[in-house]
Amino acid sequence: MNGLKALRSCWLLVAVLVASSCATMQPNFQNPSLQVTSIALLPSEGVQINFDIGLKVSNPNQQALNVIGIAYDLTLDGYKIIEGVGNDIPSIPAYGSEEFRITASTNLMQSFKLLSELLNRPKSELDYALNAKLDIGSTWLPALRLSDVGTINLSKPPTQ
């Protein structure tokens, strides 16, 4: 019985050491940055509107990120307009950037709500937020949560 108790204590000590070393393996890890580089309308099928979105991820870390999947959404003035997932994502090199494209679908009801609000209360600007979760398939690091926020100017460009 004492041997079993000693074995349990040994395994507990190993588990604690492994867990504490995991917390210190990436002490200088920085979240990558995310940037929208392009948005293009794709041919529609029925009422579903699809977009081809170009993204750029920059990795400020000393190890490459082997991305196995992405989940994302785009919010305009608080309405989740576009959302989607993708799994054909390239590896992001260490201290490098990679551009890739994803296909996104619109949330039709949220789009109608935003359109209705804009028709009732016209605005010159819209706030946007792109949120993405990158799954790097690591047992040591959780999925990376990235965002890009800003304002879209809807007013007409100055005439010359």
Give the secondary structure arrangement, pairings included.
Layout: H1 2-24, E1 33-41, E2 50-59, E3 69-76, E4 79-86, E5 96-106, H2 108-120, E6 125-135, E7 144-153
Antiparallel strand pairs: 1-2, 2-5, 3-4, 3-6, 4-5, 6-7
Give the tags.
7-stranded antiparallel sheet; Immunoglobulin-like; single chain; alpha+beta; 160 residues
Strand order of the largest sheet: 1-2-5-4-3-6-7
What number of structural domains do the residues give? 1
The secondary structure category is alpha+beta
Named CATH topology: Immunoglobulin-like
Can you tell me the CATH class? Mainly Beta
Whole-Å distance between the termini? Answer: 90 Å
Named at the architecture level, the CATH assignment is Sandwich
**Tally of extended strands?**
7
Outline the biggest β-sheet.
7 strands, antiparallel
What's the helical proportion of residues? Answer: 10-25%
The SSE string, one letter per element, is: HEEEEEHEE
Strand composition percent: 35-45%
Shape: elongated
Q: What's the average pLDDT?
A: 81
Sequence stretches where pLDDT stays below 50 over 5 or more residues: 20-24
Rg (CA only): 22 Å
Q: Given the structure, what is the number of helices?
A: 2
CATH superfamily: Immunoglobulins
Description:
It contains 2 helices and 7 strands; from the N terminus they run αβββββαββ. With 160 residues, the protein is an alpha+beta fold. It has a single domain, classed as Immunoglobulins (Immunoglobulin-like, Sandwich). It has a 7-stranded antiparallel sheet.
